[in-house]
Design goal:
alpha+beta; 4-stranded antiparallel β-sheet; elongated
Length: 160
Amino acid sequence: MPILMIGLAVVLAVVDQILKYVVVQNLKPVGTHVLIEGLLDFTYVENRGAAFGILSNQRWFFIIMTGILMVVILILLFRYHHHTTLTYLASALILGGGLGNMVDRVWLGYVVDYIHVSFFPPVFNFADCAVVIGTALFVIHVLFFAEKKPAGEPVLRRKR
């Protein structure tokens, strides 16, 4: 299952890069294209920070932190065996989204954002959606499906 999860993560990152290529080719010259008046538009933004533009121009910090987090997720997936389809899917979404944005930071120095909804000020992209949905799935797993352990018992058991 971890290999399928990695494959899905790569597919998600490739889809993200294709979408960003289309955005750069078609939206960058015009800036904004309204899809649903007052609700949804595509707006080309070069994001040099994190969510909400925080920590602008910290390119290498984000590259290093994303790399570390992706390695930690991979180690946990391969080393411990209490995973479900939900946690594998969540991991694939987080890894794929992280990889998609990391490629932008490495090659462009910024992340291409393009989705804007009127009730949410920041502009975001497909990779951001993948990371947020993956994180939400992890939270759902922990809150509703995770096996409850008695106090003092280790939470993670290594594969043997």
